[in-house]
Amino acid sequence: MSTAAIGGRVIDFRLGPWASFLVRRTGRLLVSLAALITAAFAMIHFVPGDPVRGALGLNATPEAVAARKEQLGLDESLISQYRHFLSGLFHGDLGESITARVPVSQMIGDRLPATMEIAIYAFVLVMLVAVPLGMAMAVWTRNGRRRRGELAFASSTGAIVAIPEFLLAVGLASVFGVSLGWFPVALREGPDSYVLPVLALAVTPIAALSRIVRVEALRVFETDYMRTARAKRLPGRLVYLRHALPNLLTSSLTLGGLLLSGLLAGTVLIENVFAWPGLGMTIVQAILQKDYPLVQGIVLVYGATALTINFMVDLAVAAADPQSTIRGS
Amino acid sequence: MRCPPRAAATVFALGLLVAGCGGAATDSGAGGADTVTIAIPGDPGNMNPLTTLTSSAVTMNRFTYDSLIKVDPVDGRIVPSVAEKWTTDASSATFTIRRDVKCDNGVALTASDIAAQYAYIVDPANKSPLNGLMVPPGVVATADDATNTLTLKATNPSPFLVRGSAMLPLVCPTGLRASQGLDHASDGTGPYRLTEVAAGDHFTFTKRPGYAWGPDGIGNDHTPERVVFKVIGNESTRANLLLGGQLDITPVSGSDRSRLLAAGVKYQETRDPLGMLTFNEAAGRVTADPQVRLALISALNLKQIGAVATGGKGVAPLRLGVTMGPPCTEDAITGNIPPYDRARAAETLRAAGWKKVGGQWSKDGRQLSVSLVNPGNTYGTQIVAAVELMAQQWTDFGVKVSLRPTTPSTNATVLFSGAWEVAWAPFSVTTPDQAVPFLGGPPPPEGLNFGSLDNPEYKRLMALAMAKPDTSGCPEWTAAESELIKRVDVVTFMDSMTLFFTRGFTFQVDGSGPIPTTLHKVGGR
Amino acid sequence: MSQTPRLRLALRTPLGIAAAAASTIIVLTAIFGPMLLGDTADRIDTDAIGRHSGTEHLFGTDALGRDIAARVVVATRLTLELTLFATLIAVVGGLVLGVLPAVLGRRAGRLITATVNLLVAFPGLLFVLFLAVIFGVGTFSAAFAIGLGAAPSTARLVQNLTASIAGTDYVAAARILGVNRFRIIVRHILPNIAEPVALFVSTTAAGILVAFSGLSFLGLGVQPPDYDWGRLLNEQLDRVMVDPMSAVGPGAAIVLTGITFGLIGEVVAKANAGRTAPQPEIATAETSAMTPAEESASGLLHIDHLQVRFPGHTAVHDVCLTVDEGEAVGIVGESGSGKSLTALAAAGLVPHPGRVSSRTMRFGDRDLNKQAPKGTSMAMVFQDPMASLNPALTVGRQLAEVAEVHHNAGRAAAVSRAVSRLGAVGIINPELRVRKRPHEFSGGMRQRVMIAMGLMGEPRLIIADEPTTALDVTVQAQVLALLRDVRTESGAALLLISHDIAVVSQVCDRVVVMYAGRIVEELPVGDLADGVAHPYSAALIGAVPSMTTDRDTPLATIPGRPPEPGEQSVGCPFAPRCARATDRCRTEEPVLEQIRPGRRVACWDPITTATHELEEAR
């Protein structure tokens, strides 16, 4: 809340609650990103191992290893490495992968789209299925009706959540790919090759989210405003879709955001099983090989993605439920 | 690309149509009538032959870059390729280069072009990772373009100068001058040209016309028009794709091979050292005592451990670290490894002053305790089981064992730190002289002899062998390696077999994968 | 109700039974498995390496020829210990990080929120790897790392849930009143977020179970020779296509335990939410002696022998109530007297698990036992105007939809009617205000909105359930005045429910006094001044200070307490608190009897200030 006098005129910088919320949130996003980069830099340097030796192999001479370290600037102090990293970042240069000897930005650029594609399709699928499903189950089992249905739903979703991702992926591949031959076993070739990876990625979050949506929906159904809606003798469709759904979105979106961040991580094994040319395996390899520049680059991209998702979720929640968010923050 | 109309695909119509079908239509096989699709397990990252060392890149670059000579994977014979003739002694070699070897731009590759590449690699200013690995350190290359001969002179004894030159991919002068361009395109004299790079996904190679300087002067008329390498990390997935016809050739080393064998799929084998133990003989380590090493090895049922490590599919090694196309083929190992005999092991320890108290060996109040560095999960879960079995056999014998699993990045760090007694650390070389730094060189940090091995007999025989060019030194090499095994400095007890399964093609494999000029489509599938 | 009986009730559902049975099996396996099968599981048999599943080995053998099935059983203990330990860390960490921002100062809270957001955004693998490195590779550190790795996402959920609770008025009020922060967390915040968090935790526990196998995949999980299900599963991973059963063994163990966690989560959530399990139906023979309806089936709303039952108790007993066209009837009584339920029953809005029965329930020409009231003919105004308006929708939308649904009005027409109705209830600038959401209105304005909502149609009856209770005194008066005006203008009848007899006397024509689910007295408002007949009514009036009350005399209060729901009473339910009670009162329940036209009372010994009138009537 400040005013400034410029050229004799008083300009009012006072922002509306929305605008100031946006400014605050964007600022926080940037600070978070900076903290993220620093944390990634610090952490990867704590992980033991020698990436250069790992990349060059056991056979490489100590001189060759030293030469390569010098070339990468790894012989400098951590502080000056950090400075170089930051200044490179500032110029849009993420450095070069130690193991692959390819610019990190190029590696990420090549592989990220494939990962993002399945993550986003899976996310859309999750939201399109889980929210209606959870809601439908809530309506169906509301007021303690159909306890057997409730049990069936709780156990089947519980089971799905507990199925290790790669077992699910392997199961899908072997049933629908190998045995039935409906979809390609693996590889990213044509639209039908997306079906199994996306399904493998989406099924678990669908189960997890639909459970939470159901419980949240049941909570919403008991609220006074739902009683009001019923008192207005609105048709069930309106009562549930217009009155209950928007109030479910706060928690669904929050979880959905968490899920999307999780989906990116979940791609690792899925990509492995379906030979999907994404970033998933690259991350694991980069961390195991302690490929600093690559790890930092990936952390940056993932972190920025996750933070942006959080940011958007907060915006969406604020739009759906402005009272608590804007006033509360 | 396969684009059959499938109803279920419309489920994800959300924009997937963009991904669409842009590839060429195919009729049979994984990639078309005259295309061979080969799986590689790892992403090469970078295809530049001057900077990359990843095995995936080496496998693929053989399709685009030739070498001076080739080595027959079966009998280890040196066969001509870019060089039609050669002569060698223990520290120099002279190659006569074929006049008809052409680069992509139609210009012939000359002896001086090759000499320039050697000069580039050994120049410290270029910081080439190939220096010392693909090229002996300090080698000097001179060329005579009139006779088109190339002479390599090494400062140290280099008995395998000719054979070792098979490792170096020859880059054309245009590529050497602008080496950045080699990341995504090829500039060599090989039978194929790299025409498409989809990083992390696939690499396409197209046949070059007029190629006639393959091994023994073989051309590429019979080989497929296109070769597509696909990056597929998961072995089960590779097996599925092969069975489903989306792949033509794939390596499989684990359990999935039984499915493919049951389906009657043909295969070629490659061999890698896997079960290899090195003892730490640095002063102060309990394993510096040869009696202790002997006892430790005698207490192990290595045959059983090796069978667990390879799922019963391994073979007994004949040489230390050299597997495919070895110059020396005599057996240096079998018969030299102390046999599994726990009574003898106990006896040995007692003779060395150890006592067994409460089921535990100790001497001067110190327990017999070893730290076992092992690859952890790096080579799969079978090794984990084998390491567990090994630890159990030692524990049963009365040795305290602590396991130290490593990752690819920590492996070397841990080994070079010296804080361990036994290391399960296989290494692979193509000629016996390459193993010398590990087995008889200076210990870290100056050198690579991470076990601080100091076997005078090995060093003496090795020096003799180094003075004799190529296979003429084999008797000395064999004797030298035998000494290491006998003294229990290193023990190699199991090689693993990787099977290259194929449907519809014939080919030969060596340690780097399928040999380009041997690829041949068989009629009908 | 306290936690334990609720849990017991929740355990009695099929869900609860399944959860209890499954967790018993798992715990027993964890306790006795290693004792019974420990040796089998560790027996190395190199002649039987990699055997396929079959009769000899249910899930086959592993790379050392050990029986996988036995190893799965034995691994139960370690797996369970690790999972519970990691989950505990995740939950405690998540709750602390999640709740703190709501109770700490703004600055500290914001810092924590930002940290959590950061941790959530951080790739879990790197985080876990980093922790594994700090704590060293090993069983305990793996569990610690996974637990800490799962804490941020738990924290984020808790934070979002907490933010909405912490924003509520009662927490704000508690804070202003200086209730200490710890108490706010324990009393107000935790119970309100318990249900979704319990569910999330059960899901997290299942996820953690799976995460251990992911860590094993990287060689950072449980280290040999120890083994958990994750390691067993990972060992069989490369055989999954060759002999699926070998991987199915540990996989199934993980899945079944995951299901169990899920079921436990549901049960705990249920117990916390207090959504009780159904109880055996109360014997229907309980129906008390019914007196036939005395009044003919006239009036706008006619309810005859209404009963509202909940599991374990009857909340409304044999209530007979009639509201005539245009009449204003007030129902007064303490909380728990059944007054609101009576109104809700008339509107068909009794919450689960209440059951409504009546001999007759008629509204206009509709039998409410068969049909809902027609469209907009019955309007409702509730106690808490904030909670009763949908926070996610604009006020205009909530008003307009009534016209859209019931009068087939177009969107524009509906909105313009909403504007006019808002204007009619005294909202300034209704054209602008229709686009606002409820939180942008003050309490009194919201109640006006609720009333306007009722006026969107042509209500014949407005049911107002404690419409002024949540409002401050000046606003109360305004809203009451508005209700009066609305009634005059629309000619609608009013059923006003209040605990405050003064409010009722200001607006209504007739007063119905309820106690313990029964009507104890019914009289015209005009008669209030003359004195009431039932001692309870008298006490209620006495509890209302008026201008004439001598300020020095203490307020007459009613000693004792109303009967608890479910308390079986013999005789008059008010007898224990009644100064005039006789033996008859304690043994025989009085019947509601007409003492003169328009006046009924249920008392064996009514107050006789109006005795001569009574006599006259007889």
Describe this structure in words.
Chain A has helices at residues 17-46, 51-56, 62-72, 78-90, 104-141, 147-162, 165-179, 195-221, 224-231, 236-273, 280-288, 292-320, 322-328; strands at 3-6, 9-12. By secondary structure, chain A is an all-alpha fold. Residues 1-29 of chain B have low confidence and may be disordered. Chain B has 2 domains: 21-265 and 503-521, D-Maltodextrin-Binding Protein, domain 2; 273-496, Roll (Dipeptide-binding Protein, domain 3), CATH 3.10.105. In chain B, strand 13 (355-357) and strand 14 form a beta hairpin. In chain C, 51% of the residues lie in helices and 11% in strands. Chain C has 618 residues and is of the alpha/beta class. An 8-stranded mixed β-sheet of chain C has the order 7-8-9-3-10-11-13-12, sandwiched between helices. In chain C, strands 1, 2, 4, 5 and 6 form a 5-stranded antiparallel β-sheet that branches. In chain C, strand 12 and strand 13 (599-601) form a beta hairpin. The longest helix of chain C has 37 residues, at 181-217. Chain C starts with a helix and ends with a helix. At the A-C interface, helix 1, helix 6, helix 7, helix 8 and helix 9 of A face helix 2, helix 4, helix 5, helix 6 and helix 8 of C.
Helix amount of chain A: over 70%
Content-based structural category of chain A: mainly alpha
SS-based class of chain B? alpha+beta
* Beta-strand percent range of chain B: 15-25%
The count of domains of chain B is 2
Oligomer: heterotrimer
Rounded to an integer, what's the Rg of chain A over CA atoms? Answer: 25 Å
CATH fold node name of the largest domain in chain B: D-Maltodextrin-Binding Protein, domain 2
Fourth-level CATH superfamily of the largest domain in chain B: Periplasmic binding protein-like II
**Number of E strands of chain B:** 23
Strand arrangement within the widest β-sheet of chain A reads: 1-2
> Going across the major beta sheet of chain B, what is the strand order?
11-19-12-18-16-17
Strand content of chain A: under 5%
Question: What would you say the CATH architecture of the largest domain in chain B is?
Answer: 3-Layer(aba) Sandwich
Unreliable stretches of chain A, pLDDT < 50, 5 or more residues?
1-13, 325-329
- Compressed to H and E, one letter per element, the order of chain A equals EEHHHHHHHHHHHHH
* pLDDT averaged over residues of chain B: 87
> Poorly predicted ranges of chain B (pLDDT <50, ≥5 residues)?
1-29
Helical segment tally of chain B? 14
